[in-house]
Amino acid sequence: MPVHSRPSKKSSSSSRGGGGGGSSSLPYMHATDTSSHLSSTLTPQQYLGRMMDLEQMDLQSAVDQMRTLLTLYPQRVYKMAYYRKQTKNHWARDDPAFCFLQLIMIIASSLAYGFAFRIPSFSAIFGFVAKSILIHWLGFGVVVASVGRLIANQHLMMSERSSSHVKQSVEWLYAFDVHCNAFVPLFVLLYGVQFFLLPLVLGTSLLSLFVSNTLFAMAFAWYFYITHLGYRALPFLSNTEVFLFPIAAILVIYIINLVGYPFGLGWNASRIVAYIYFEN
Question: Distance between CA 91 and CA 173 in Å, rounded?
């Protein structure tokens, strides 16, 4: 992939100003760019069509990105968005391999949970798999992407610095990309690690509550941190720290559960989820 020269520190700092939330190395578009460059040219229909053809997907690249999201430097994944903007004039992925692999992972883990909880029929297992995809991944992702994009476009846009800069907006597909990125560590903790700790986290002791709620708190805190990084990577947004605010709420709930346990106010997240999906 070609590497384009980046703007000098002087021009970069002047375009970002103070207190911005994005990376200072990502330039604005120049005014000579057409308005068609301001959003992804790939429609959701085309995106789904490409998912049906394995030859059009770079699965190895998707695996490498997932591994990067689980390291101490998950922001490196968003450098690819910068290169896409420079070469294809859109921030969002046009390769559905990342989503395709996530679907496979969700199906496999849902089947494993179905057998672990002894779901009695194939139709019930199929229903659980469908819920995992349509509600946990797709539904949750559509809501988070739509709300995040709305907040970014209406409240976090940087004011126009000069006539040579064209106002951009967050693409919906990019916002959904951010959700898919953030879903990776959440999946690893709540679908993977938790599965092997089911005998422990489904207990009624303080240790069970502590381990279960720690897994959920880490998973969702990690989710919102990577979400923040995704919006921070866009050079035309500022104050993207707002996407970190849910982490404070997660911390408060986590502490309340631990402190309230001796008084009967502690809630084990794993037991609650298991009751909702497997007891009714």
Answer: 8
**Assigned token pair, 195:** 């599965």
Prediction pTM value: 0.81
For the chain, state the CA radius of gyration.
21
Identify the H or E element spanning 113.
Answer: helix 97-116
DSSP, residue by residue, 139-167: IHHHHHHHHHHHHHHHHSBPPP-STTB--
Euclidean distance between CA atoms 87 and 34, whole angstroms: 15
Cα separation of 30 and 70, whole Å? 35
Per-residue pLDDT reduced to its tens digit, 178-214: 999 999 999 999 999 999 999 999 999 999 999 999 9
- Tell me if 239 sits within 8 A of 19, measured CB to CB: yes
**Token match 């790939």: residue?**
42
What torsion, rounded to 10 degrees, do the Cα atoms 101, 107, 108, 109 define? 110
| Helix, coil or strand: residue 20 | strand
Joined together, the tokens standing for residue 45 give: 């229909």
Indicate the burial class of 240 (C-beta count within 10 angstroms; 0-12, 13-18, 19 or more). buried
